Task: inverse folding
């Protein structure tokens, strides 16, 4: 079975993304992405899949997957049960690590971890325990402290002398083959054309499916409809612009993110963020004043 593409959102002004999720969750499926991923299991146990590896996991399972390496963690929970916090995740582009090493040669130890992660790197229980505390603080961290914690995390992982490689030496991820799957092509198209106008007809044609079949496949693939998925990405982009482009008006941001009218933009923003974009920016400005003081 070919894996699904996950579109990883690393915001403007960010070097990496760090987040946590419960179970079930939309990314819990056989999937891949060009970004590296550090995945820590907080709760539940079950089976996990990395490349051609299949194993058992429990709380404390800590794995790093390299670019385009398919992976999935399937928790064994009672039907209908939910878990509020299952995993903590850090995702970053491979060249971010190489750029750090270029500037700080002392960080070259990262290279060996990155190379092992191409087949999936399982960290020892001792290192997992130390990394857990860093990850818990990293998720909500902001500013320079966020970068400091990331470097501390990578330093901790680099010190593991009992690192285990998961998938076999002969396993080679094939992103070009993975991208031949119709919905994956459509997701890539959305990511590339996010700020441009497009509709479900174009996405279905990109996927090589009828509109009805594409709609059902897309919902099964992402856990949401096309409009909801696109609006979520566009609102996330709007938040980045509100935070990083103070000279842009809310109206300019609306159209820059791909919305074609201001009232719909305000409505979608309010639905997802619990406040209108003007209030979001005002609170950001208030926070900046506090930090400056």
Result:
């Amino acid at each position: 079975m070919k894996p699904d593409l996950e579109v990883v959102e690393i915001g403007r002004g960010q070097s990496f993304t760090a987040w946590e999720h419960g179970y079930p969750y939309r990314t819990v499926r056989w999937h891949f992405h060009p970004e590296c991923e550090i995945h820590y299991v907080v709760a539940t146990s079950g089976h996990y899949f990395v490349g051609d590896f299949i194993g058992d996991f429990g709380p404390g399972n800590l794995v790093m997957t390299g670019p385009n390496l398919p992976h999935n963690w399937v928790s064994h929970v009672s039907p209908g049960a939910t878990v509020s916090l299952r995993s903590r995740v850090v995702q970053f582009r491979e060249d971010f690590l190489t750029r750090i090493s270029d500037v700080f040669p002392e960080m070259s130890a990262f290279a060996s971890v990155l190379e092992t992660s191409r087949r999936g790197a399982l960290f020892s229980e001792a290192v997992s325990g130390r990394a857990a505390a860093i990850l818990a603080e990293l998720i909500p961290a902001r500013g320079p402290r966020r970068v400091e914690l990331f470097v501390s995390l990578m330093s901790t992982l680099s010190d593991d002398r009992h690192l285990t490689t998961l998938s076999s030496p002969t396993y080679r991820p094939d992103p070009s083959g993975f991208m031949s799957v119709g919905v994956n092509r459509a997701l890539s198209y959305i990511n590339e054309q996010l700020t441009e106008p497009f509709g479900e007809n174009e996405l279905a044609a990109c996927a090589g499916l009828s509109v009805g079949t594409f709609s059902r496949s897309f919902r099964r693939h992402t856990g949401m409809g096309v409009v909801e998925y696109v609006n979520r990405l566009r609102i996330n982009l709007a938040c980045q612009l509100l935070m990083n482009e103070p000279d842009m008006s809310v109206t300019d941001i609306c159209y820059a993110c791909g919305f074609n009218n201001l009232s719909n933009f305000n409505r979608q923003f309010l639905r997802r963020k619990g406040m209108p974009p003007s209030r979001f920016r005002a609170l950001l400005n208030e926070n900046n004043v506090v930090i400056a003081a």
